[in-house]
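To close the section, here is one more complete example, presented without commentary so you can practise reading it yourself. The ligand is zinc ion.
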Amino acid sequence: MKNSFKNKLLPTSTAGSLPKPSWLAEPETLWSPWKLQDEQLIEGKQDALRVSLHEQQLAGIDIVSDGEQTRQHFVTTFIEHLNGVDFSKRETVRIRNRYDASVPTVVGAVSRQKPVFVEDARFLRQQTDQPIKWALPGPMTMIDTLYDAHYKSREKLAWEFAKILNQEAKELEAAGVDIIQFDEPAFNVFFDEVNEWGIATLERAIEGLKCETAVHICYGYGIKANTDWKKTLGSEWRQYEEAFPKLQQSSIDIISLECHNSHVPMDLLELIRGKKVMVGAIDVATNTIETPEEVASTLRAALQFVDADKLYPCTNCGMTPLSREVARGKLKALSAGAEIIRKELSR
Ligand SMILES: [Zn+2]
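Output:
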């Protein structure tokens, strides 16, 4: 069963987070605080992981994840476990050139005290024989959510984080993770830095890994700061054009992208020809559940630029802010849409 995604055509997965149960965190809320503490919280997170896994399995998702049930925020939860960052010392910075946020301060050399997600990944591995994917923040997105009073160089801090991420990734691999994904929404914003050192630091983060590696680049959750920003991007979103040529040359195996309902011209995928592509065929910024045929038509369009054996149907981004019912419907639509295309390809 393990690694069966290498044999199955169009293996489905999600970009990351899934809704949390209401007994664990406030539902339909991004970055909601936990409702439990201490031992109860540990057990609650594990139970939520089981539920989330079960939902994915019922919906027929091929490459499963923890649904990010064990973390509050896709970047901050990782950084909380590191030395050198003071969470009580906060400064206001502009995140991804889009919105102001109060963020922690880098006050000294950053390092990892102990593994962050490895126990959680091991727990997920025990629950299923299916291939599993684990998400980590990417170096560039990490530095963009901090105030740096120590290195005073975005690039230097990114290289330090890349080393830490590499330690974590190697342990996740040893725990049985099949695909390690780095979330890099910042790749859609800081184009010069992406090409100067962003992709290089990402490659440092995956150095020596034998499992598959992915980078997820999206236009963010369906929150107001993001939807307002999207309105300024015009009728054609060509941001991917900036990072794709260098990513195509990079050692990253899989590129995870937002496609359905976005204004990304599909022909940009030509620029990463040869890479495996997680094609976002589910819009996470709307409660409208896609029909299987809508999913299929997005995948069909992507197939013009991605070889069938390299196409991984996926969601545009995480689904934490959605209701469980909507998320469930979207997962089922993703599976059913992929199945339509599998049948077409087998004819
Ligand atoms: Zn995303």
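Once you have examined the tokens, check your reading against these statements. Strands lie at 82-95, 99-112, 133-137, 147-148, 179-183, 212-217, 254-258, 276-280, 311-314. The mean pLDDT is 94.
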